[in-house]
Design brief:
The complex is a heterotrimer of chains A (485), B (92) and C (470).
Chain A (H helix, E strand, L loop, with lengths): L3 H9 L5 H19 L2 E4 L1 H16 L11 E5 L26 H8 L3 E6 L19 E2 L2 E5 L5 H8 L5 E5 L6 H6 L3 E4 L20 E5 L2 H11 L29 E5 H4 L4 H16 L3 E5 L7 H16 L18 H12 L2 H14 L5 H21 L5 E5 L15 H6 L5 H6 L3 E8 L5 E7 L5 H14 L14
Parallel strand pairs in A: 2-3, 2-6, 9-10, 9-11
Antiparallel strand pairs in A: 1-3, 4-5, 6-8, 7-8, 7-12, 11-13, 12-13
Chain B lengths: L3 H10 L6 H18 L22 E2 L9 H4 L6 E2 L2 E4 L4
Antiparallel strand pairs in B: 2-3
Helix pairs in contact in B: 1-2
Chain C lengths: L2 E12 L36 E2 H13 L3 E2 L2 E2 L2 E4 L9 E4 L6 E2 L2 E3 L5 E11 L3 E5 L2 E5 L6 E7 L6 H17 L12 E11 L9 E6 L2 H20 L8 E5 L4 E4 L12 E2 L6 E2 L2 H10 L4 H10 L5 H8 L2 H11 L5 H12 L6 H6 L6 H12 L5 H14 L9 H4 L4 H14 L1 H8 L5 H12 L6 H12 L1
Parallel strand pairs in C: 14-15
Antiparallel strand pairs in C: 1-12, 1-13, 3-7, 4-18, 5-6, 5-17, 7-9, 8-9, 9-12, 10-11, 13-14, 15-16
Classes of the chains: A alpha/beta (485), B alpha+beta (92), C alpha+beta (470).
Chain lengths: 485, 92, 470
């Protein structure tokens, strides 16, 4: 498996050069991207330039960092200076940021080799990657199925071994859900652990950048690298829980793993079965399983949609054709120009969420929707705080189902929203959550489980996830695609 | 109850055009989502005031000048510009 | 029927911080277009605001200066509206929890104009309309503002003018803004309504936006007062709307277009955190505030025996009052200092801007020295006056123009001798005085002055002569 530590070892032991490695990734992208549609922008030239630098260091006998020279990708909503960043929206076509997102500054400084920018639902609004202006990324386990969303491109690329790892963003499950669909690991960090500076906002109070990786160790390595306090983000706190990598192999004997009944409601049988099996694995590792109720969960989804859409309607007001991005051709006056630009530039799902957000904030509705949702957000935060008095981590499905077929999502919007039901509570409460592969359904599509932790306690959930990975390695599988290492 | 007028009004606020022929179906679809959002009305209102997720306060920067970007950089993504300004040309 | 004017003000004041409210770009006025900008203040996707601490401090100063209550908890909200000068399509402002609550501005007629609150927010960029094209410059975008919102307590145009002047004066005193209306660093929106004299009920108001001179405020209010009164008199109704004042025609007109839907959808800005202000901090800031103009004025009148009118002139501008305070250090007669400033110095600083700057050639220490010579009876007023003219022309000190000999011969004994001599050599005048001709004493004083070659103090001489005669 093309994990970070494996690649690092290969580079250090000079089994291959970074340039050779990068070229083989670029070759595989070339071969497979037509079907996977994971990348929307391939930056081969820049990648090879960085690879060359890394090779120079290695041949010069210099030590290299863990992430140095490792080929990776960024979701296309993470700003990269001079490299087109579109959020997979027509409205940002041609937009080249004049600054780097903090996370990319951090990784670029460590000589990460960025292969390109990856596909996503337009402005991260969607659960299948299909609202992308460039069409959806497909699932490496079966390309008739969706990759999930919104970080579908990253998950597809990592699942298909055409990137060793990637950074996605998670507002209501956008890292964990596609990771689950593509049979890999996705970590949504605690709100505030990773800087949001340069992440093109969907819903500012929920958005968080995190890694999508082949293994739990990789998620830990990348998380440690990007979870730094950032002066430019007022909500940034950095990794308050301390670095996670060295604590991965801690004993979990006596660890209390909680299961909330509500998380298993309405979940498909095959998914539920895998989760309960995972609980058994934990028992065998000496952990204790505790069951409890978390009735507040039933409000999480409407609360999520109200808050996310309200913030989005405000965040997306700036796309007006004046400073950057798409501008309509024919118009009559500024107002007309702005309306046409936005109507032509945004896709239907984005428009719908902007309208919904505008509605819940507008005079006469603010109290009933936005204010009430904020109040319930407080209730949900408290409910999780209480739950964590009963357990150390919460085990839940990541998604109530496995990856559905392409084209299915658009047919029933509410049902599509329901795919987020297990992931959104974590964003509402600002908690860390990691999705880990825990089985396959009858059609061979991956199933994911989610471990949810206390605020800034990434260490505990990654440790628990690692222990599971050790105990059930059969769930971590390569696909037919990509670089074979 | 979401009305056509509501949708027209919020579309104007959102600076989006909704074609006449889509207005009914959009109103309908907005109504469905609002019905879904309405489920929170059954929830008891708690005393838990929500401020910000990590209850942060007093995050400030000092009043120290940082070099600005050049106007070339600032304008580099502008669809239209003239004389170092962003430009909205009056077209018909 | 006679009508009463009712007005409230929303006053925007640009704060004189070095940097913008949410980024490190300079707040300097002017500059080539779009050169005081960065990704944050042009609202590039992904950028985040970070609050300038000094903005909070300046707002607290403003709050304290107008007797407002400093909130313990304040928050930032987004005010959503789409306009080309607003780079994010929302203005970061405060609605639900502003920094300052209440307060008042006291007018010279003793009325207190109550303030509703003061909040901090960001300024928008600048639009230039040319041949229907719109040019956008974001240099001003993100410059910090405070908005001072008054209650509808103003009852006349004179009160309105004084209210604006008082705000301008006090904000300049505390050093948070230059309040230059012509440069836009102070702008007023005026809410105005009329009602029958004696009525308690408020009439429907209109809002005149963006007034940038006191003259225009007065003219616009006058026009609007008449317009509303005429409308009501003729049986019509005032429509609540936003107006602009056209300087050229002297009229107001509606700003509303069908494109504006006014619903700002305020909500808490999720990119910024809560502001907690400890009472300690408030006390610390309070300690750094200068003496405020109203307090200074009172002190000048009560302690320094300066006439009220003069005290007001001296305190109108902070620099003048500071000049006065320094020049008064240890003098016996502050009134003399005041007279020199208001008389000779004001004639050299005629414009408001000159007074604001008060860059006269003579330093307060030099004036102080000159006045002390008078205090000590070493020179008399006339000589001091002409000397000050020379000092103001040249920037040189007192001693450059007054010699030792000018200051000599004025001691008690010399004066005594001269007075005795005058009484002895003018028996006629002495007789006249004794018989009730008060004026006759002037001749005796004149004699002393002549013999002292102008060095004697007339008042002292008169007293001495009376003493000798009696």
């Amino acid at each position: 498996m093309g994990t970070i530590s494996k690649i690092h070892e290969m580079l250090v032991s000079k089994q291959c050069s970074c340039t050779e490695l990068t070229k083989s990734y670029l070759d595989e992208i070339e071969k497979s991207n037509g079907e996977l549609n994971a990348y929307v922008n391939i930056t081969g030239e820049e990648a090879l330039k960085t690879a060359e630098q890394v090779d120079k260091k290695i041949s010069g006998g210099e030590e290299i960092g863990m992430l140095e020279g490792v080929p990776m990708t960024l979701k296309d909503n993470i700003s990269t200076k001079g490299i087109e960043t579109t959020c997979c929206s027509k409205i940002l076509t041609g937009y080249k940021p004049i600054y780097n997102a903090t996370v990319w500054d951090e990784l670029a400084n460590q000589n990460a080799v960025m292969l390109g920018k990856t596909n996503m639902d337009e402005f991260a609004m969607g659960s299948s990657c299909e609202t992308s202006y460039f069409g959806g990324a497909t699932n490496p386990f079966n390309t008739k199925h969706v990759s999930g969303g919104s970080s579908g491109g990253v998950a597809s690329a990592v699942g298909a071994n055409i990137a060793a790892y990637g950074l996605g963003s998670d507002t209501g499950g956008s890292i964990r859900q596609p990771a689950s669909f593509c049979g890999i690991v996705g970590l949504k960090p605690t709100y505030g652990a990773v800087s949001r500076y340069g992440l093109i906002a969907y819903a500012s109070s929920l958005d968080q950048i995190g890694p999508i990786t082949k293994s739990v160790e990789d998620a830990s390595i990348v998380f440690d690298a990007i979870s730094k306090f950032d002066d430019r983000d007022s909500t940034s706190q950095g990794n308050l829980g301390g670095e996670t990598y060295s604590k991965l192999n801690n004993d979990i004997k006596g660890m209390k793993i909680g299961i909330a009944h509500e998380y298993l409601d309405g979940v498909r049988d095959d998914v539920k079965e895998s989760i309960l099996k995972a609980a058994e694995v934990y028992k065998s590792l000496g952990a204790e399983i505790v069951y409890f109720d978390l009735p507040e969960l039933k409000f999480a989804l409407p609360v999520y949609y109200i808050i996310a859409c309200a913030e989005a309607s405000s965040n997306l007001g700036r796309y007006d054709g004046i400073r950057f991005g798409y501008k309509t051709e024919h118009y009559n006056g500024t107002h007309d120009m702005v309306c046409r630009t936005r109507s032509e530039g945004f896709g239907d799902e984005v428009k719908k969420r902007i309208l919904l957000g505008t509605y819940v904030l507008s005079a006469g509705y603010y109290d009933a929707y936005y204010k009430k949702a904020q109040n319930l957000r407080g209730t949900i935060v408290k409910a999780f705080d209480n739950a964590f008095e009963k357990c150390d981590v919460i085990l839940a499905p990541t998604v109530p189902m496995t990856a559905f077929e392409m084209g299915h999502a658009v047919s029933d919007p509410i049902e599509t929203y329901l795919t987020d039901i297990c992931t959104v509570p974590v964003n509402i409460a600002g908690l860390p959550g990691v999705s880990v592969p825990c089985g396959f359904n009858a059609n061979g599509m991956p199933i994911g489980m989610q471990l949810i932790g206390k605020r800034f306690d990434e260490s505990t959930i990654l440790n628990a996830a690692y222990k599971y990975q050790q105990a059930a390695p059969e769930n971590f599988k390569d696909t037919k695609w990509g670089v074979k290492l | 109850m979401v009305t056509r007028e509501d949708v027209e009004n919020i579309a104007l606020l959102s600076k989006l055009f909704v074609p006449e022929e889509e207005l009914d179906s959009l109103t309908q679809s907005m109504q469905e989502i609002i019905d879904f959002a309405d489920t929170i009305n059954n929830a008891p209102t708690s005393g838990e005031a929500f401020d910000n997720i990590n209850n942060l306060s007093n995050v400030f920067r000092e009043d120290e000048v940082v070099k600005s970007y050049s106007s070339e950089e600032i304008l580099s993504n502008a669809p239209e510009q003239a004389e170092n300004h962003f430009l909205v040309r009056n077209r018909e | 029927m006679s009508y009463e004017l009712v007005a409230g003000f929303e006053t925007h004041i640009e704060l004189a911080t070095k940097t913008k409210i949410f980024c490190g770009c300079t707040t300097q006025f002017g500059g080539e277009p779009n050169t005081h900008c960065c990704p944050v203040c042009i609202g590039l996707p992904g950028t985040l605001p970070k609050l300038n601490r000094e903005v909070v401090n300046f707002a607290i100063r403003a709050g304290l200066a107008v007797h407002g209550e400093i909130a313990e908890v304040a928050k930032m909200d987004r005010k959503n509206y789409c306009y080309p000068d607003l780079s994010k399509a929302y203005q970061i402002s405060q609605l639900y929890a502003p920094l300052i609550i209440g307060g008042y501005v006291e007018l010279s007629n003793g009325r207190k104009i109550r303030l509703h609150h003061i909040h901090i927010e960001e300024d928008a960029g600048k639009l230039i309309h040319q041949h229907g094209d719109t040019y956008v410059d974001y240099n001003r975008g993100g410059v910090p503002l405070i908005e001072i919102v008054s209650e509808p307590d103003i009852r006349s145009i004179d009160e309105a003018k004084e209210y604006v002047e008082k705000l301008q004066q006090v904000m300049r005193y505390i050093g948070i803004s230059d309040c230059k209306m012509q440069e836009g660093s102070m702008r007023c929106d005026v809410n105005i309504s009329v009602r029958p004299q004696g009525s308690e009920k408020l009439g429907t108001r209109t809002e005149i936006k963006n007034m940038n001179s006191i003259t225009n405020i007065a003219k616009a209010m006058e026009y609007e007062f008449e317009r509303q009164t005429d409308l009501i008199e003729s049986g019509g109704q005032v429509v609540q709307e936003t107006l602009r004042y056209d300087d050229a025609t002297g009229t107001t007109s509606s700003m509303r277009s069908k494109e504006d839907a006014h619903d700002y959808r305020y909500f808490r800005d999720p990119d910024l955190v809560t502001i907690n202000i400890s009472r300690d901090e408030v006390e610390k800031i309070k300690a750094t505030l200068p003496e405020l103009p109203a307090d200074k004025c009172k002190r000048y009148i009560e302690e320094l025996q300066i006439p009220e009118k003069d005290a007001q002139l001296l305190t109108k501008y902070r620099k003048i009052s500071e000049y006065f305070d320094e020049a008064c250090e240890g003098v016996k007669s502050p009134k003399t200092v005041s007279n020199f400033i208001i008389g000779q110095m004001f004639s050299r600083t005629e414009t408001e801007a000159d007074k604001e700057e008060f860059a006269v050639a003579t330093t307060p220490a030099q004036l102080n020295e000159l006045v002390k010579l008078i205090d000590d009876g070493k020179i008399r007023n006339n000589l001091a006056k002409s000397t000050l003219e020379k000092m103001l022309d040249s920037g040189k000190g007192t001693l450059d123009f007054i010699s030792e000999s000018d200051m000599g011969g004025l001691d008690e004994n010399a004066l005594n001798d001269l007075c005795k001599q005058a009484v002895e050599s003018n028996p006629k005048a002495v007789e006249d005085y004794k018989s009730g001709k008060e004026k006759a004493i002037k001749a005796l004083v004149g004699n002393v002055m002549k013999n002292s070659r102008g060095k004697a103090d007339a008042t002292a001489a008169e007293a001495k002569i009376k003493e000798i005669i009696n």
